[in-house]
Write a structure and sequence with these properties.
Chain B: It comes from Brassica napus (Rape). The complex is a heterodimer of chains A (273) and B (254). Chain A is α+β, with helices and mostly antiparallel strands. Chain A contains 5 helices and 12 strands. Chain A has helices spanning 19-27, 88-109, 115-128, 170-180, 187-204; strands spanning 42-46, 50-55, 59-61, 64-67, 73-77, 80-86, 135-143, 146-152, 158-160, 163-166, 212-218, 221-229. In chain A, strands 10-1-2-11-12 form a 5-stranded antiparallel β-sheet, with helices on one face. In chain A, strands 5-6-7-8-9 form a 5-stranded antiparallel β-sheet, with helices on one face. Chain A has a two-stranded antiparallel ribbon with strand order 3-4. Classes of the chains: A alpha+beta (273), B alpha+beta (254).
Chain lengths: 273, 254
């Protein structure tokens, strides 16, 4: 490290200063904390009038299911939604951040947000972090130029596709899409196909599970169908419910009103302007 | 063992087969560390009259599609069909072992012949034993057959994991074909429906597996015997409008 007399302001971007220290600690035997990953199936589909996004609802922490019913379809703009796979914190943070940037942009321009705006903002951010922000996204929406569907990879590359899948269950979902997708799907056919693809991920991939969330975006209108399908209900629920048989015995009752013991005195001047 | 001949040092290495392949450095060159020429997935299903097995005819050398005429599905004896994915040379070795097995069985000349269950068991033992010596046969094998009206379909992997099921898939087929088979397989599939189902799976594999080629064979085994089809190719569809000019509405994206 060179000793410089002038204080250099920190440059933007990722600071790699602590990487050497982390490597040294791992060599000494420290186990790095594991991330809450969403091991996921997320899909997107363009149909006749717009875009349909689908996602499962399981969040995993290694081999444990941390959240049985989390929300993976994030709001970006009234006409744009984004599904996220990868590290849950990364997808939440990145979509929230770009969502607020889009809102500010809407105030400034006075127009509805476009999908490629969201795409470029996300892509720029992810690329500058060189893949360390582990967020794989399926971005879909309908703007003035029509319906759009994009996938964004953690390193910052993007694809523009008529149908897309991401996450650990992406192969299972893609096999359904490749076998059954056709052009000019109606709304109901599209929803059915998306639900089928997510179910394929839920039942054939261990990182995905629980329920199916669907979001349908058309020109000027969006429908967020939370828990559209629940193919994994709790099988054995006791019909009796819970009840505690023995009631606690009351031995003595003593009520002390507190208000009489408190004296409120006005002291000091009013706050200075 | 060194031999000094006219001042020139010639070193002979005697292959040491003490089974300790892991620690012995010389034996390192004698055990399989990586596969070289590999075959991709095999997809097989039980249907009404027997077993249908589909595979493509490609052998990849790393990322090159080197061989395009490899038959990865072979008949074993009278009652079984063996398909293999993974290292092709190890598959050929397995065929040699099975040849010997079937020959010995025929020499007994007792009117009995090896059925698919027996061949599957033999293969499981061979694969597991080789794995224990850290010198595996780098294959995932699919064994199907019919004997005395009983339809059998099973699978053995390179580490010796073996099981039987109504439909199996190896390699990429695990991820792409299994979801389709789990959804659409039925016990009473006719021959045409079975072929259609297999073709559906092979088409998805053709689109999404980089080592797949569009030249496949479908083999059928029933009580009557084995038939392996001639190689043929699947119709693919690349004309989705949205793929023609995907970024037309999103200038600046690629």
């Amino acid at each position: 490290m060179t000793q410089s007399g002038v204080d250099v302001p920190p440059k933007g971007g990722f600071s790699f200063d602590l990487c050497k220290r982390n490597d040294m600690l791992i060599q000494k035997g420290l186990k790095a904390p594991s991330f809450l990953k969403t091991g996921t199936t997320i899909v997107g589909l363009i149909f006749k009038d717009g875009v349909i996004l689908g996602a499962d609802t399981r969040a995993t922490e290694g081999p444990i299911v941390a959240d049985k019913n989390c929300e993976k379809i994030h709001y970006m703009a009234p006409n744009i939604y984004c599904c996220g796979a990868g590290t849950a914190a990364d997808t939440e943070a990145v979509t929230d951040m770009v969502s607020s940037q889009l809102r500010l942009h809407r105030y400034q321009t006075g127009r509805d947000s476009r999908v490629i705006t969201a795409l470029t903002l996300l892509k720029k951010h992810l690329f500058s972090y060189q893949g360390h922000v582990s967020a794989a996204l399926v971005l879909g929406g309908v703007d003035i130029t029509g319906p759009h569907l994009h996938t964004i990879y953690p390193h910052g590359s993007t694809d523009t596709l008529p149908f897309a899948t991401m996450g650990s269950g992406s192969l299972a979902a893609m096999s359904v899409f490749e076998a059954k997708y056709k052009e000019g799907l109606t709304r109901d056919e599209g929803i059915k196909l998306v639900a089928e693809a997510i179910c394929s991920g839920i039942f054939n991939d261990l990182g995905s599970g629980s329920n199916v969330d669907i979001c349908v975006i058309t020109k000027g209108h969006k429908e967020y169908l939370r828990n559209y399908m629940e193919p994994n209900p709790r099988t054995y629920v006791s019909s009796k419910g819970y009840s505690f048989t023995k009631k606690t015995e009351v031995l003595r009752t003593k009520i002390t009103p507190l208000m009489e013991r408190v004296e409120i005195t006005e002291v000091g001047e009013a706050m200075e302007e | 063992m060194l031999l000094i001949l006219w001042g020139v040092l010639i070193q002979f290495t005697i292959p040491i087969d003490n089974g300790d392949a892991l620690k012995n450095a010389e034996a390192d060159s004698q055990r399989t560390l990586y596969p070289y020429v590999t075959g991709t997935s095999i997809v097989a299903i039980k249907y009404k009259d027997g077993v249908l097995m589909a595979s493509d005819m490609g052998g990849s050398y790393g990322s090159t599609l080197r061989y395009k005429n490899i038959e990865r599905v072979k008949a074993i004896g009278k009652h079984s069909l063996l398909g293999a994915s993974g290292e092709i040379s190890d598959f050929q070795e397995i065929l040699r072992y099975l040849d010997e097995l079937v020959l010995n069985d025929n020499m007994w000349d007792d009117g009995n012949s090896l059925g698919p269950k027996e061949v599957h068991n033999y293969l499981t033992r061979v694969m597991y034993n080789r794995r224990n010596k850290f010198n595996p046969l780098w294959n995932t094998l699919v064994l199907g057959g019919v004997k005395n009206g009983e339809i059998y379909l099973g699978m053995v992997s390179m580490i010796g994991v073996s099981f039987e099921d109504n439909h199996v898939a190896t390699g990429f087929g695990n991820h792409l074909a299994r979801p389709i088979l789990r959804d659409e397989w039925r016990a009473d599939l006719s021959f045409e429906d079975g072929v259609k189902l297999l073709e559906k799976c092979m088409r998805v594999l053709l689109y999404r597996d980089r080592s797949a080629i569009n030249k496949l064979q479908i083999a059928k085994i029933t009580e009557e015997g084995v038939t392996v089809s001639q190689p043929y190719s699947l119709k693919t569809f690349w004309e989705f409008q949205a793929f023609h000019n995907p970024t037309a509405g999103a200038q600046g994206s690629w």
